[in-house]
Amino acid sequence: MKEFKAIIEAYEQYKVAGKNTALATVVQVDGSAYRRPGARMLVSEDGELTGAISGGCLEGDALRKAQTVIFQQKSMLVTYDTTDEDDQKFGVGLGCNGIIHVLIEPIDYQNTINPIELLKIALQDRVFSRLLTVFSVKYSKQEQIGTKILLKGNHVFGDEDKLETPLWEKIQDELKTMDTNHHKIRKYESLDDIQVFIESIKPTIRILLFGAGNDTIPLAKMADILGLEVILIDGRKNLATPTRFPSALKIITGSGEEVVEHLETDEHSAALLMTHNFEYEALVMEELSKLDLPYLGILGPKKKSQKLIERLAKKGIPVNQATIYSPMGLDIGAEGSEEIALSILAEVKAVLAKKQGTFLRNKKGPIHD
Questions:
Q1: Which of 84, 10, 72 has its CA nearest to residue 40?
Q2: 11 C-beta neighbours (distance < 10 Å), count
Q3: Cα distance between residue 127 and residue 121, in whole Å
Q4: N or C: where does the chain have the smaller number of CB atoms within 10 Å of the terminal CB?
Q5: Is the pTM of this model over 0.70?
Q6: CB 8 within 8 A of CB 123
Q7: 3-class DSSP string for the chain
Q8: Which residues pair with 29 in a beta bridge?
Q9: Residue 33 Cα distances to 226, 366, 368, angstroms
């Protein structure tokens, strides 16, 4: 998501400057690759890059092809076969073992539904979206249909007229059974082997950070590096300040009863109780327990969370203990606030991605689903 935002920011700057651009998107990977479908890179006519489609190995060649696309104003599908033992042909050993298909599209600033404008619509609020990109490996030498449609809520943005009726109907049938946590690449052999990359675009993970002490500063900084939204909440106005937490999207101060009234949550939100104030957190947790949060982390020993739960039980307030993580964080032997922040954010990411947070070397099969 952070990469998307960087691309949009660069796009706006190039638009003002009158620089032509092209967008490179990984649309399909067969085998192993550093980046997966959905990775993007914006290329300007003078060779500036924003984003990435690999670990740095393909960018040079993709840059040259993107400049051709900008000059010709025609989309292009490029295939990089890194299964070839002689992978030096790209200028550097890739260290991968897969076939990577990259769609490069010219960006028309006059088109209000160009690929980046569709990304802007997807990110303008916290509503789940699906972006459709149409291409054909079989006819890779021909101009590609490209990124044409964004589905958001009950709205369709883009140029669905570019899709033939049978294809559009098949895509709509496909969407009915798709898992919102995953992308999908569908090949329609009956429609001349045309392929569609159906990309799930979820809202940015929102961190509700309760606690403005010194130990939460590294966590807020790290969350910003990861592109997460941080809402800082605390009762101490002298600590919960923009000076101490410049990356916070919003700062809420007040008593435990007051702050919860200003919270906006959804299924992509995680609450972290790090105030070191039991009474404050008890009041906050009473309200948080009414929300359907996928992650509620409590800093401190397990006894602390048990006491909090017992207090709520005495008030007749049920608590979904399956979503409570206490002590919060992955067991990585963390010491100090920076390592604890790493441990906590890694666990939040794993939980919201529905992963176990285990060693990749123990995983059978490819890294990515």
A1: 10
A2: 24
A3: 10
A4: C
A5: yes
A6: yes
A7: CHHHHHHHHHHHHHHHHCCCEEEEEEEEEEEECCCCCCCEEEEECCCCEEECCCCCCCHHHHHHHHHHHHHHCCCEEEEEECCCCCHHHHCCCCCCEEEEEEEEEECCCCCCCCHHHHHHHHHCCCCCEEEEEEECCCCCCCCCCEEEEEEECCEEEECHHHCCHHHHHHHHHHHCCCCCCCCEEEEEHHHCCEEEEEEEECCCCEEEEECCCHHHHHHHHHHHHCCCEEEEEECCCCCCCCCCCCCCCEEEECCHHHHHHHCCCCCCEEEEECCCCHHHHHHHHHHHCCCCCCEEEECCCHHHHHHHHHHHHHCCCCCCHHHEECCCCCCCCCCHHHHHHHHHHHHHHHHHCCCCCCCHHHCCCCCCC
A8: 100
A9: 21, 10, 10
As a residue count, the chain comes to 369
Reduced to 3 states, what is the DSSP secondary structure of residue 92?
Answer: coil
Written as one letter, the residue type at 11 is Y
The C-alpha atoms of residue 282 and residue 234 are separated, in whole angstroms, by: 13
Rounded CA-CA distance 214/263 in Å is 23
The one-letter code for the residue type at 345 is L
Are 178 and 151 spatial neighbours (Cβ–Cβ below 8 Å)?
no
**Residue in this structure with the two tokens 């997807």, named with its chain if needed:** 122
